[in-house]
Design brief:
Length: about 425
């Protein structure tokens, strides 16, 4: 152990992190499995702020050993609190993801997801350069929030638009992206925000993938149900940037959900038909843990149909509305009163004349939505400008353009300082 400690200190001092990784892997092979106490001995003799990379490699190697959950969780929490981010980004980022995953698994096994939430959030804040960066800790954090039912806490992170995905710097993989948006969709389902849930699940479906995965398939099933709840239909096609391998086969493996969506497409579908279909496939929906979501879709079907009537008529006899809904008058009145009570519709029932009057929503609600959308577009424009600036100043882009244009290469070689080069890049008329 003394020799290993000396070699770790020497490699870190030289900045030779490749040798450090290889040395720890070779020296600790099968050791932590037989002697898990050696993990603590090594970490106690290494200052965390100086030897963050070594800590990360040791903790990742200890994952396969017989280390005690409480001990390992304590060590990881100390690591997240005091790590030097520059020794993780681009150095041992892949191992960082392994440590986070193991820590999250232990939080789940010990049924203490609430314990891990603040530590993972602290780790995210330290490892990312900007709030727009995705890290391997993002899905783990949202997962623990989901288990603890702290949806609003997860929402604070989910509301940040992800714009930067840098595998070499943060160790993030396609599976991290899939899980982040899948768990995010489930958080918004918990918050009853089905529009945002649909958006998150759609992004999950569009994550880079060479084949259909279990995550993608589960996301698609929830995507169908959330679309039905929100709009009463599901999109005819997935986005163009969705992997073709996923688009080709995903509907084949979720035929029950496609048939369920097909009933919503029929204009003469009734609540009775939907309930019968749901009862016939109850076990399948329950096995997918989507039965509750499917029941909400059935309830929302009534809201969609009433919405269609509301868009055409300003007033309608209650009996006529019941006829359009293919329901008894008494049941129609009961459902309509529930919708009014839940602010689902602006209708009101005149019991004297037995008429249903539909009133338009206040203009202020539309104005607020428009202002919010304009704010989003403004932020997006600013982000695109900044990203354009970053690309134009990147080493890779400059080299690519210089190879295409000899005049540009000669011009840049005359610039003496980095500041002059950057200014020249910004002024140069790129193709």
């Amino acid at each position: 152990m003394d020799v290993l400690l000396q070699n770790i200190q020497l490699s870190t001092k030289k900045g030779d992190y490749g040798s450090l990784r290889k040395m720890i892997d070779e020296s600790t092979e099968d050791v932590f499995g037989k002697h898990p106490e050696y993990v603590g001995v090594l970490l106690e003799n290494l200052e965390l702020d100086k030897y963050t990379a070594a800590w990360c490699h040791i903790l990742s190697r200890a994952c396969g050993g017989k280390v005690k959950s409480q001990t390992y969780m304590d060590q990881v929490e100390v690591f997240f609190a005091g790590m030097a981010a520059d020794q993780v980004r681009g150095v041992c980022a892949d191992r960082f993801g392994i440590v986070s995953k193991k820590y999250t698994e232990m939080c789940r096994e010990t049924k203490s997801p609430g314990r891990g939430i603040p530590h993972l959030l602290h780790g995210i804040q330290k490892i990312r350069k900007t709030p727009a960066d995705l890290t391997p800790l993002h899905p783990d954090y949202v997962c623990l929030c989901l288990l603890q039912k702290q949806y609003n806490q997860a929402k604070d992170l989910l509301e940040r638009t992800i714009l930067n995905v840098e595998p070499k710097q943060t160790g993030v993989l396609p599976v991290h992206m899939m899980l982040y948006y899948y768990y995010g969709g489930m958080v918004y389902i918990g918050l009853k925000d089905f529009k945002r849930a649909t958006e998150m699940l759609e992004t999950c479906l569009c994550a880079p993938s060479s084949c259909l995965t279990a995550i993608t398939l589960e996301a698609f099933k929830k995507y169908v149900l959330c679309s039905l709840i929100e709009t009463g239909k599901m999109p005819l096609n997935l986005p163009k940037h969705c992997p073709s391998q996923v688009v080709k086969v995903i509907r084949r493996y979720s035929q029950v959900y496609m048939d369920f969506a097909g009933l919503f497409k029929k204009k003469d579908s009734t609540q009775e038909e939907l309930n019968e279909f749901l009862e016939a496939h109850k076990e399948g929906f329950k096995a997918d843990k989507n039965y509750g979501l499917a029941k909400q879709a059935v309830v929302s079907h009534l809201r969609i149909v009433v919405g269609r009537v509301e868009a055409v008529f300003s007033a309608l006899p209650l009996a006529e509305l019941a006829k359009k809904l293919k329901m008894p008058v008494a049941e129609t009145e009961k459902c309509l009163l529930t919708m009014i009570r839940n602010n689902v519709t602006t209708a009101r029932i005149d019991r004297t004349t037995q008429m249903v009057h539909f009133t338009a929503p206040p203009l202020a609600s539309y104005t607020r939505e428009i202002i919010d959308e304009l704010e989003k577009l403004k932020r997006l424009t600013e982000t695109i400008k900044q990203e354009n600036h970053n690309v134009k100043c990147s080493k890779e882009y400059i080299i690519k353009e210089m190879n295409k244009d000899p005049a540009m290469k000669e011009y840049f070689s005359s610039q003496k300082t980095k500041k002059n080069i950057v200014e020249a890049v910004l002024k140069w008329p790129f193709h």
